[in-house]
Every structure is written in structure tokens, then in C-alpha cells.
Amino acid sequence: MTKQAQPWPPAGAEPAPAHPKAPGPGSELGVHFTECFGCGDELEGGLHLRSTVADGLTVRSRFTVTKNHQGAPGLAHGGLLACAFDEALGTTVGNLLRRPAVTGRLETDFRRPVPVGSTLHIEARVDGVGGRKIYASADGRLDAEDGPVAVRARGLFVMVGLEHFTSHGDPDAIEKFREQGRPVREDWDINP
Ligand SMILES: CCCCCCCCCCCCCC(=O)SCCNC(=O)CCNC(=O)[C@H](O)C(C)(C)COP(=O)(O)OP(=O)(O)OC[C@H]1O[C@@H](n2cnc3c(N)ncnc32)[C@H](O)[C@@H]1OP(=O)(O)O
């Protein structure tokens, strides 16, 4: 079977400028929710992914693989790595475009094993927007920003209204999220 490369972003997608209130290059993005498996600091076995805005529509994230993240002995689980890319891409989309959006589709290419103890450096970018759809992609490199590529990913995010979270999420968790003071209404464009 021949592999047919699909254009990325697809025809019709347009460049997406950063939101005027998006954090600038060098900004640390911090934790969006303390119970988030990707970035939260309350979960001992979580990824504790940390992200910094780089130039343009790019965010650099990193996380260190621990024994909590294993699939094969001593190696990161592939689904766990996909989770790290979901977080890195979601953070990039959310912070740079300041539109609530959720992952509709996530593709991952696993190029090299990722050992426990290594740090994955993920560079993610927004590639374009078409209607409510946001296209983003990322490369994950082993142990250095210019290390060998271990994982590549592409994500399709779909802009949603805040009711997506309030109607489907757990009220106690939403209340905790609000108490953590995220200025969602003031700084985000919330009507897709
Ligand atoms: C409160 C703020 C929080 C801030 C957090 C910031 C940091 C975040 C941290 C990050 C954490 C990590 C992030 C996470 O983990 S997010 C958690 C994982 N994701 C989800 O739970 C999403 C579940 N899915 C849905 O809710 C709905 O299906 C959505 C909302 C996605 C679409 O249902 P909706 O009824 O609304 O819209 P629609 O069906 O008319 O679709 C609209 C358009 O999109 C196209 N389409 C849809 N799906 C696909 C697909 N699979 N492939 C290709 N295309 C797809 C579709 O064809 C259509 O295109 P077009 O016909 O218009 O051309």
C-alpha cells in the first residue's frame, strides 16, 4: 500500500495571527488547572509539563519521563507520549489564540523510543485556522531542543463555547478551576 501525504494544514486553512492579548515570547505559561494530568502540580504521577512561548506562533514545552510513565520496561508508554503532545498542542492553541478549543483529532508518529529519565523537548506551533477548526503540529526531541526527533504530532482542535466545559464537566472541578483565578472571560474570545 502506498502512503499518500495529505497537505497540512489542509487547503482552505488560513494563517492564524496570535491574539492581541496572547503572552509574548519568553512568557512562562504556568499551570492552567492544578488537577490537569498534563501540567497540574497536584498529581504525583502526572507529566508536570512546563511551557514557554517562543517566537511567532510557537510554544516550547518539556517534560521528564519517570517510571510512572512506562509502557515497556524503562521506556515511555506511547499513549502517555500522545497525552504530552495533546497538552503541548492544546496549551499552544489556547494561549496563543485565546479561544477555548478541544482536541478533535490527534495523530502521532513515534520515531524513537523515549527512555525513563529522558526529557522530551516539544516545539508546537499553530499552522492555520479554517472556520472553527485549528490546525497545530509539534516535534518532540530527546534531551535537548536540537536533539533527535522522537515523536511528531498533528492536532485538529475545534473551537467551542465555555458551555462545552460547564455542561459536560464536573461542577466541583469547574468551581475549583474558577477559584484558581483563570481570567477566562476577560481575556478570551469565547464565542466560536
Ligand atoms: C475554559 C478554558 C480552558 C483553558 C485550557 C487551556 C489549556 C488546554 C490544555 C490542553 C488539554 C488537552 C486538550 C484536550 O485533551 S480536550 C479533551 C479531548 N477532546 C474532547 O473531549 C472533544 C470531544 N469531542 C467533542 O466534544 C465534539 O466532537 C467537538 C466539540 C470536537 C466537535 O463537535 P461539534 O458538534 O461542536 O462540531 P462538529 O462536529 O460540527 O465539528 C466542527 C468541525 O470540526 C470537524 N471535526 C470535528 N471532529 C473532527 C475529527 N475528529 N476529524 C476531522 N474533523 C473533525 C467537523 O467535520 C466540522 O468541520 P466542518 O464541517 O465545519 O468543516
TrEMBL record:
Annotated membrane topology: Peripheral membrane protein
Cell location: Cell projection, Ruffle membrane; Cytoplasm; Membrane
GO MF term list: hydrolase activity
Keywords in alphabetical order: Apoptosis, Cell membrane, Cell projection, Cytoplasm, Fatty acid metabolism, Hydrolase, Lipid metabolism, Membrane, Transit peptide
Keyword Cell membrane attributed: yes
Record field: compositional bias (Pro residues): 7-23
GO biological process: fatty acid metabolic process
E.C. number: 3.1.2.2
Pfam families, per the entry: 4HBT
Stretches for region Disordered: 1-27
Top EC class of this enzyme: hydrolase
Catalytic activity: decanoyl-CoA + H2O = decanoate + CoA + H(+); (5Z,8Z,11Z,14Z)-eicosatetraenoyl-CoA + H2O = (5Z,8Z,11Z,14Z)-eicosatetraenoate + CoA + H(+); tetradecanoyl-CoA + H2O = tetradecanoate + CoA + H(+); hexadecanoyl-CoA + H2O = hexadecanoate + CoA + H(+)
Residue ranges of every copy of the Thioesterase domain listed in the record: 74-139
Database matches in InterPro entries: HotDog_dom_sf, THEM4/THEM5_acyl-CoA_thioest, Thioestr_dom
Signal peptide range in chain numbering: none
Family (UniProt): Belongs to the THEM4/THEM5 thioesterase family.
Name under which the protein is recorded: Acyl-coenzyme A thioesterase THEM4
The organism of origin for this protein: Amycolatopsis arida
